Amino acid sequence: MTGAQEWQGRVGQNWAAEWERTDRSFAALTPYLLAAIAAEPGKRVIDVGCGAGELSIAVATARADAQVTGVDISGELIEAARHRAAGLTNLAFTVADASAWEADGAAPDLYISRHGVMFFTDPPAAFAHMSARAAPGARMVFSCFRPATENPWALEIARLLPPAKPGPSVDFPPGPFAFADPDHARRCLKGWRDIRFEPLDFAYVAGSGTNPVADALSFFSRIGPAAAAIRTLPDQQRATFERALLELVQSRHVGGRVCFPAAAWLVTATADNQ
Ligand SMILES: C[S@@+](CC[C@H](N)C(=O)[O-])C[C@H]1O[C@@H](n2cnc3c(N)ncnc32)[C@H](O)[C@@H]1O
User: Fold this and answer.
1) Three-state secondary structure along 44-55?
2) β-sheet bridge partners, residue 112
3) Which of 96, 120, 234, 236 could be 126's S-S partner, Cβ–Cβ 3.0 to 4.6 Å?
4) How many CA atoms does the CB half-sphere of 66 hold within 13 Å?
5) Hey, which residues does 144 pair with through a beta bridge?
6) 192-251, pLDDT tens digit by residue?
7) 3-state SS class at 268
8) Where are the beta strands (DSSP E) in 27-183?
9) CATH topology for the 4-151+167-205+261-271 domain
10) Is 72 close to ligand 1, i.e. is its CB under 6 Å away?
11) C-alpha to C-alpha distances, 88 to 41, 51, 81, nearest whole angstrom
């Protein structure tokens, strides 16, 4: 599970330090998301869980007549986003929990997100809030992961780890795969209609440059399931895991990059608030 506390703490700090490599990991997905966003009208655009702001910056640059706001719960990520976006006058960033945040001024007419909506504590309440605060018939476009079984970047690392201890039982465990099941995601999208899921497959780039294997190992030591294992496993288990991770990364080193297949949903919906 990755919830608000983690994003406000170590996980958010690591993503803020690693934004160039996290953007790279999504680089093959982002053009699909931007094309879907470009097909939607909207002048008050909210990027939910905007992280270091790549999507917000791209949309604000493409839509000079729109006001774009990136909302994220991590202060470090918003700081990184502000730094990157300096000079764009139609873009603002704010540190807030998007599940309860209220826009100043005109109501949002387009919500967008690249993998930033799967971490709410109570997703039905969060999406109902977003719908209620939106302009009538506002649209939403976001991406999220399909199941771990279709995402070797996560599955193959998970297989190298000792079985996870069961966490506390909650109705809506937040995390990267929280919306993997469309039926479950539909139940979460309270206040939204015309919900559509389009599958997108992309190459998750974990390593590149002069030494792609070393690059991928250092990336995985900061981001994702391997990072937590490297930090928390006892010495001997950690050494075994690191050896296995090296072999895995080497096996995925092809053509100057370390890439893993990844599978996402592109989700679109209309606010049911008229
Ligand atoms: C997987 S990252 C994606 C970041 C960014 N959209 C990107 O594509 O790089 C998930 C983001 O959601 C943010 N987040 C998690 N829970 C949130 C909440 N309740 N409100 C706002 N942002 C949240 C995290 O801080 C993090 O930046």
Assistant:
1) EEEEECCCCCHH
2) 47, 141
3) 120
4) 26
5) 265
6) 999 999 999 999 999 999 999 999 999 999 999 899 889 989 999 999 999 999 999 999
7) strand
8) 44-48, 67-72, 91-95, 110-114, 139-145
9) Rossmann fold (3.40.50)
10) yes
11) 20, 17, 11
| Residue to substitute in 50, 153, 177 for testing ligand 1 pocket (most ligand atoms within 8 angstroms of CB) | 50
Each domain of the chain, given as residue ranges in start order, spans 4-151+167-205+261-271
User: 222: Cβ below 6 Å to ligand 1?
Assistant: no
Instruction: Report whether 258 contacts 208 (CB < 8 A).
Output: yes
The one-letter amino acid code at 243 reads R
- How crowded is residue 109: how many other Cβ atoms within 10 Å of its Cβ? 20
Which numbered atom of ligand 1 lies nearest the CA of 26?
A: 8
Ligand 1 geometric centre to CA of 49 (Å): 3
Degrees (nearest 5) of the Cα angle 180, 183, 187? 105
Element (H, E) at 10: helix 10-17
55-105 pLDDT, tens digit each:
999 999 999 999 999 999 999 999 999 999 999 999 999 999 999 999 988
Cβ–Cβ < 8 Å for 230, 241 = yes
For residue 237, give every residue at least 6 positions away whose Cβ sits within 8 Å of its Cβ, in sequence order, or none: 162
Q: How many residues does the chain have?
A: 274
Collapse the DSSP code of 92 into the 3-class scheme (helix H, G, I; strand E, B; otherwise coil) and give the result: strand
The whole-number average pLDDT for the span 21-45 is 98
| Closest ligand 1 atom, residue 52 Cα | 9
